[in-house]
Specification:
The complex is a heterodimer of chains A (about 850) and B (about 425). With about 850 residues, chain A is mainly α. Among the domains of chain A are: about 120 residues, no CATH class; about 210 residues, no CATH class; about 130 residues, no CATH class; about 110 residues, no CATH class. Helix content of chain A is about 45%, strand content about 5%. In chain A, strand 6 and strand 7 form a beta hairpin. By secondary structure, chain B is of the alpha/beta class. Among the domains of chain B are: about 60 residues, no CATH class; about 40 residues, no CATH class. In chain B, the strands form 5 sheets. In chain B, strands 1, 4, 5, 6, 7, 8, 11, 12 and 15 form a 9-stranded mixed β-sheet that branches. A two-stranded antiparallel ribbon of chain B has the order 2-3. Chain B has a two-stranded antiparallel sheet with strand order 9-10. In chain B, helix 3 runs parallel beside helix 10 and helix 8 runs parallel beside helix 9. The longest helix of chain B is centred in the C-terminal third of the chain and has 26 residues. Chain B is globular. The chains are: A mainly alpha (about 850), B alpha/beta (about 425). The interface between A and B is large, with 114 and 102 residues.
């Protein structure tokens, strides 16, 4: 695939000019114009969206749209077009029916965008001219969205603010060709809305009243960018964006190595590890998750080569290849064999499990190639190991693009810029050495470079954690800056996370058959991302500083179609609901329940609750409890997911990320260095003896538990209990931990899951944003909303409400600022005051008001 | 209306959900029978699935092997059905055998807990690219809602996921049977009057927001809110309470969580809940299987027998399919730790009600319960059978959000017709 550099880009407009002059001279201008429109506009749309199913090869509905004759003949539903008559043209009807309609074309991909539809309508209106002899072809394998870079400036921006302006400019120009109906757009949001939006997006909770005050005190011209700078460097940024990566990578705390992987990602974000480096480590690392947490990525798919191949390409490149595992891809052009070749990169890797009572699991390399051709179900007499092969082509160029030179300069300031492109690039992908990749994935790994390198030669042969040369190669291919998918796939996801809609949707489906909206803006952002050294923070900063990010929503009254068009063109933003985690943390923040808001004992009260009294004698259970429930399969544990009483769907299992990255169990090979850096020479050389040592555990203890368990089981009373209501005194003063540092995904009925946290066991699974009855119940009656609404003496608003001189309006204003980051209008103040008056006490009235604010749609949807 | 809460289809779902989801439940019986190609009309309206996780031994429960070395500690006992014997750990259930059928020849394919569970609950093998909905999810997706309560309720453990059917078909979750779900009432200390005042203020506030912004999501959230408030006020909620039950009834079901779960399941289907799954774990008995199974018997026996007895007495058994299932069976060979290991190739299930003819055994295993001897039943046949009992078209094709056509039940599945003969 050719990379078109700027010189070549200049060609089309010149040609267009001469073509027109020529046309004017030779025949009538309209014919030439029509022909021009066909080649420039209609043909690409038809080729991209129609011809793959309606051609000589694949005549769906008996229809061929690749030739003039086919077009005129039509298919099962009659003629495709009636030249000049838009109303009677089946083509136009089919592309215009609403999203979700049975007849909508094209199928199996996004509907056509506004401009593309308009081109086709215009074409039919003007007589549906089809130049003689033109036969359309479907786009085999071409990399989508790289045909045109005219809007992207050659020179590097001098600041991120400038880059944001350039991005806005590109978008504006990309939106110009829209004919016909005018695109609706929204104005920029006001300062306080921006404060709320960007705080929620960058650090995962609403702003505090102190932050509001600080923001408002700043110079109005620079406060937005100052705010962004503050948020970007907040420690909560890493927590918020760990959720982003965890969704993308399908990190499951419950999976083997899942919690370590989560902690590792958190550290990568916190330390600003370049994205490409992180991905190389994820793809190539072997070992035990406790020591080499990046190995958790392969363990998450049970080190299955097929699953890993599908996931790697879909997650990191946004290409859906997984269908090709079982058959040639039905609508893209991937062959099953190519999928097998990709899987072969993982074909020597295996998961090893040792120990029965205390399991140790790690990944390593075996001798046998496990990926064999032909596929097993063909039952061929002989199946051979497959040679790994990367099925994607890198872009090639004569003149090295400046963003790649900028990356090189940044990574390797000494390098001669005139050096051969490829050589420099190989150096860039510095972790092609798997030992090095593994080392770097360790906590404090960078510090260890030398000591590990020294020991490496000696130890590598003895090590049970063999590293994979093939996976390191694959990682190098995927993260190569010339890979046209890698950077764009991430940019697309980050953009969608912030703006509410991706350039490509579904977010992981880059395909010649799936339209990219504003492809040049996407490419520009990708180039800047590469040039920044694949720095997530720079990318996020660039995006939130654009006007595009700062656009409001369309006002009520806009139709669903108008909204969809504006959102797709990024001229207005989509109202996004907060992520479940963010909503929970924001409620806790608004109500000051992340810490105690009552003095100890202030809230003591008597409560009644039911307890269970076992019917069997206590001794029988003393040791047996664990043993009786301990041998459940993980997936369908017999224990209720939320644990036993009290019934609580808002409590999570707290994770200590730092502790997870501190190896606690390496035995003699590990020594602890000062300053908390863990040095683990054993990483590469952990001996079999250590693994075995871990398996031996107090046999006597195990036996005692066993006997107690048998006695309890045989009593026939083991699980019987009576319920009794008891009265107890409770100091009702709860506080709530951040959901960002919780085992995730949470159990299916947990608050954050009910609000859309995905199960993360499904490729291509995204956050569910639909509302549900369960969500409402959790907000209406849940603990966190209830406690956040109550007014405690240790929170700021208490002073206001307990001071007899405070006017009710002031309380209302403070409550609004605290919950909604804005001031109430007159009507709202009046309503709030009367709500507060209806209560028995001012404090209760304020609780009612706060409950209303926290439960409101406005709270939940980002402004 | 579909019975799972169907507020809207997620915006990511750009593809049409399979059109024409006309539920077969509304059809007259003869048409329905014709529609699904069978001579007998479906009778079941609801399902209670007892899910025993860990892999319950078939030999120590429904398929005893007296006189064989593999037989283990338990003696078979006679039942109310002529010629059918089950393990001694189910003395009460034995008296209900005339209402129950046993399948002794399920030919499973997978001995790994997670993968087998997945297959037994969805009919499909696990696939990293797609999550299939569990039985409860696709049953409620295909049937009408007939209660104020959620259509699919899971008691005491996790139900399988709704997969590509989405959040709206996930189970409503009851942690501890008999304990009121605190999320269905205003928090302690909030009176009805105060709660009502809050709801009214909230409605005004939300109306203002919806008046300002164009967003379908806002409207749908309001619908969800309205449904939630209605549920909080619904008299049907009383079915969740067990404290008004006669203590003798509680005693009959056994004073265990499982027993309370079974009782709750009965009450829920009586109010029209479509699918209830009651979960119980602890069957992965690699060690000391006999004391474990004796305990399981003492818990399961009173609960399931009382349930079947009560449903039969009220005439409700005809309309309620009761099924006891596990992800696989256990090895005939007793291992050195006095346990049995995973065995998928042959295991059993107990099924009652919902039009199932009681007092019969379908299929058999060989002398040691190693392999199905005759009438092997494939895993997906079980799902097809449940669909059949309810009149759900198990061959129906749905479309996943990514546009992949997918049969409700795995291709090739057939109902076990003998069940309904």
């Amino acid at each position: 695939m050719a990379y078109r550099n700027r010189q070549r880009h200049l060609a089309p407009p010149i040609m267009r000019g001469s073509f027109q002059i020529l046309a004017l001279l030779l025949t009538s201008i309209t014919v030439a114009r029509a022909e021009f429109d066909f080649i420039q506009k209609v043909q690409p749309v038809l080729e991209g969206s129609c011809v793959r199913c309606h051609s000589a090869e694949k005549k769906k509905g008996g229809l061929r749209l690749d030739t003039k004759e086919g077009f005129l003949r039509g298919g099962a539903s009659g003629p495709t077009v009636v030249p000049g008559d838009v109303e009677k043209s089946e083509l136009i009807r089919r592309i215009s029916v609403p999203r979700g309609h049975e007849d909508l074309m094209p199928q199996e991909m996004e509907p056509l965008s506004g401009p593309h539809k308009n081109w086709l309508v215009e074409w039919v209106k003007t007589g549906a001219k089809w130049p003689d002899g033109v036969v359309l072809k479907s786009h085999k394998r071409s990399v989508p969205g790289l045909s045109d870079f005219r809007l992207i400036p050659e020179t590097a921006p001098t600041s991120v603010e400038e880059a944001a302006r350039v991005a806005d400019g590109i978008l504006k120009k990309e939106n110009t060709p829209v004919k016909g109906k005018k695109l609706l757009g929204a104005a920029l949001i006001d300062d306080l809305s921006f404060l709320r939006r960007v705080t929620v997006d960058l650090v995962g909770r609403i702003p505090t009243t102190q932050e509001v005050a600080q923001f408002e005190a700043e110079d109005a011209r620079t406060r937005r960018s100052k705010l962004v700078a503050r948020l970007i460097s907040s420690p909560r940024f890493a927590d918020r964006w760990t959720v982003f990566y965890a969704d993308m990578l399908r990190v499951r705390s419950q999976a083997e190595g899942g919690s370590q992987l989560l902690a590792y990602i958190n550290r990568c974000v916190a330390q600003g590890k370049p994205y490409d480096e992180m991905v190389r480590e994820l793809i190539s690392t072997n070992g035990r998750a406790e020591q080499a947490p990046a190995a958790g990525f392969a363990l998450g798919d049970m080190v299955n080569p097929m699953a890993l191949a599908g996931a790697t390409v879909q997650v990191f490149m946004g290409v859906r290849l997984a269908c090709a595992e079982c058959h040639d891809h039905p609508f893209d052009d991937w062959k099953q064999k190519e999928f097998y070749e990709l899987a072969a990169y993982f074909g020597h890797s295996k998961r090893v499990e040792t120990g029965k009572k205390i399991k140790t699991v790690y990944t390593t390399e075996g001798d046998e190639m496990l990926v064999k051709w032909p596929p097993e179900r063909e039952q061929a007499p002989k199946r051979d190991g497959v040679e790994p092969k990367f099925p994607f082509e890198m872009i090639s160029f004569k003149v090295k693009p400046s963003y790649i030179s900028r990356l090189e300069k940044m990574r390797n300031p000494g390098v001669d810029e005139r050096a051969v492109a490829n050589k420099a690039l190989d150096e860039l992908v510095s972790d092609a050495d798997p030992q090095k990749a593994l080392k770097a994935s360790l906590p404090g790994g960078d510090v260890l470079a030398e000591s590990v390198r020294d020991g490496k030669k000696r130890q590598v042969d003895k090590s049970i954690f063999r590293q994979s040369e093939e996976r390191a190669q694959l990682a190098a291919h995927i993260t190569d800056p010339r890979n046209p998918y890698f950077a764009r796939a991430l940019v697309n996801r980050v953009w969608a996370e912030l703006v509410g809609r991706g350039f490509v949707e579904p977010l992981d489906n880059f395909s010649a058959y799936n339209e990219i909206r504003s492809p040049q803006l996407l490419q520009y952002l990708a180039q800047e991302f590469i040039a920044s050294g694949y720095d997530l923070r720079s990318l996020v900063k660039l995006i939130v500083l654009t006007e595009t990010y700062q656009k409001g929503h369309l006002p009520a009254g806009a139709t669903a179609q108008e909204s969809a068009q504006a959102e797709e063109a990024f001229t207005a933003t989509r109202p996004r609901r907060m992520l479940g985690e963010v909503l929970f943390d924001s409620v806790a923040e608004a109500g000051h329940v992340q810490d105690f808001k009552w003095p100890t004992g202030a809230n003591r009260r008597e409560v009644q609750r039911q307890i269970r009294i076992p019917i069997a004698p206590k001794e029988a259970f003393a040791v047996a409890d664990d043993a009786m429930t301990g041998n459940e399969p993980k997936m369908m544990g017999g224990k209720p997911a939320m644990g036993s009483a009290p019934y609580d769907l808002e409590k999570g299992q707290k994770l200590d990320f730092d502790a997870l990255l501190k190896e606690g169990d390496t035995g003699s090979l590990t020594k602890n260095k000062p300053a908390g850096v863990m040095i683990s020479e054993g990483v590469l050389s952990e001996s079999r003896m250590d693994v075995e040592a871990r398996q031996k555990k107090e046999d006597a203890e195990v036996e005692a538990v066993r006997m107690a368990r048998i006695r309890a089981l045989q009593s026939g009373l083991a699980e019987r209990f009576r319920l009794e209501t008891i009265t107890e005194v409770l100091d009702d003063n709860p506080k709530f931990d951040s959901t960002f540092r919780m085992a995730s995904p949470a159990p299916p009925s947990h608050f954050v899951r009910v609000f859309g946290q995905p199960s993360r066991d499904n490729l291509g699974e995204f956050r569910n944003e639909s509302p549900s009855l369960r969500q409402e119940l959790l907000m209406l009656n849940g603990k966190v909303t209830h406690e956040a609404s109550r007014v405690g003496p240790l929170e700021p608003i208490f002073k206001l409400v307990s001071n007899p001189n405070t006017k009710p309006e002031q309380i209302v204003e403070f409550a609004y600022l605290e919950a909604l980051t804005r001031r109430p209008n007159r009507e709202e103040v009046a309503e709030a005051v009367s709500l507060m008056k209806a209560a028995e006490t001012p404090v209760e009235g304020l609780a009612d008001l706060r409950w209303t604010l926290l439960n409101s749609l406005e709270f939940r949807f980002i402004p | 209306m579909k019975s799972c809460e169907d507020y809207h289809i997620s915006r990511r779902r750009f593809l049409t959900q399979c059109a024409g989801t006309a539920a077969l439940l509304g059809m007259p019986a003869h048409q329905l029978a014709a529609a699904i190609g069978s001579s007998h009309a479906p009778k079941a309206e609801s399902v209670i699935l007892f899910w025993n996780s860990g892999g319950m031994s078939h030999l120590d429960t429904w398929d005893p092997k007296p006189g064989r070395e593999v037989g283990g500690e338990f003696e078979p006992i006679k039942t109310s059905a002529d010629g059918i014997q089950i393990s001694e750990i189910f003395p009460q259930l034995a008296k209900q055998m005339h209402n129950c059928a046993i399948i002794r020849s399920i030919a499973g394919t997978n001995g790994d807990h997670a993968r087998a569970t997945y297959e037994l609950q969805t009919s499909y093998p696990q696939n990293p690219a797609l999550v299939h909905p569990g039985l409860g999810s696709f049953i409620v997706n295909e049937s009408n809602r007939s209660s104020d309560l959620p259509s699919y309720i899971s008691i005491g453990g996790m139900a399988p996921r709704a997969g590509y059917l989405g959040q709206r078909c996930e189970a409503y979750y009851v942690g501890l049977p008999g304990e009121r779900d605190p999320y269905l009432a205003f928090p302690a200390g909030i009176s009805q009057v105060q709660g009502q005042r809050r709801l009214e203020a909230l409605a005004r506030m939300n109306a203002r927001t919806s008046g300002k912004i164009a967003a379908a999501d806002l409207k749908e959230s309001s619908v969800a809110l309205r449904d939630a408030v209605n549920l909080m006020k619904s008299p049907a909620l009383a079915s969740f309470d067990l404290d008004k039950e006669d203590p003798k009834t509680l005693e009959r079901y056994g004073l265990t969580e499982f027993g309370r779960g079974a009782l709750l399941a009965r009450k829920l289907v009586e109010t029209g809940v479509r699918f209830v799954q009651v979960n119980r774990g602890g069957f992965d008995n690699h060690m000391d299987i006999f004391p474990s199974m004796r305990n399981h018997g003492s818990v399961m026996d009173p609960a399931i027998s009382a349930l079947i007895e009560d449903l039969a007495a009220s005439g409700r058994l005809e309309k309620t399919l009761v099924m006891v299932l596990s992800e696989f069976g256990r090895t005939p060979k007793i291992n050195k730790d006095a346990g049995r290991d995973h065995h998928a190739r042959c295991f059993s299930s107990l099924i009652a009600g919902g039009g199932v003819k009681g007092g019969q055994v379908i299929g058999s295993s060989d002398a040691d319960g190693m392999e199905p001897k005759d009438r092997p039943v494939q895993v997906a046949d079980l799902h097809a059978s449940v669909c059949h009992a309810l009149g759900v078209n198990y061959t129906k094709e749905l479309t996943t959000p990514l546009g992949r056509p997918m049969k409700l039940v795995k291709e090739g599945a057939k109902p076990v017709n003998e069940l309904f003969a």
